Amino acid sequence: MSSYLITVQPAGWRFEAEEGRALLLAAEDAGIVLPASCRNGTCRTCLCRVAAGEVAYLIDWPGLSPDDKRAGDTLPCVAVARSDLALWAPAARRITA
């Protein structure tokens, strides 16, 4: 199975996302918390920007408008990587043990 390197900006944290795994869950696996609430693509709490790379969606119609999509916004709760990515997510935080 393929995986992709995801960089969370502006912090510069990196994690691997397995092909087909939601970005939100892959980030959590790596100890990075992206803001989230519904986890099904409707509430937009996890909205962030794809600064580089390509995503696809696990659902047919995520809660993104055409303007959001043109701007490069994504919902990592229902998005999967299709390439290495840079996500602009300034509200992300890292869990430290």
Describe the structure in your own words.
This protein is mainly β and about 100 residues long. The chain is about 15% helix and about 35% strand. The protein is built from two helices and nine strands; from the N terminus they run E-E-H-E-E-E-H-E-E-E-E. It has helices at about 25-30, 65-70, and strands spanning about 5-10, 15-20, 30-35, 50, 55, 75, 80, 85-90, 95. The strands form three sheets. The chain has a five-stranded mixed β-sheet. The protein has a two-stranded antiparallel ribbon with strand order 3-9. A two-stranded antiparallel sheet has the order 5-7. A hairpin with a 3-residue loop joins strand 1 (about 5-10) and strand 2 (about 15-20).
Short note summarizing the structure:
This protein is mainly beta.
Supply database-style keywords.
2 helices; 97 residues; 13% helix; 35% strand; single chain
Helix residue percentage:
10-25%
Structural class: mainly beta
| Biggest sheet record | 5 strands, mixed
Strand order of the largest sheet: 2-1-8-4-6
Determine the mean pLDDT.
95
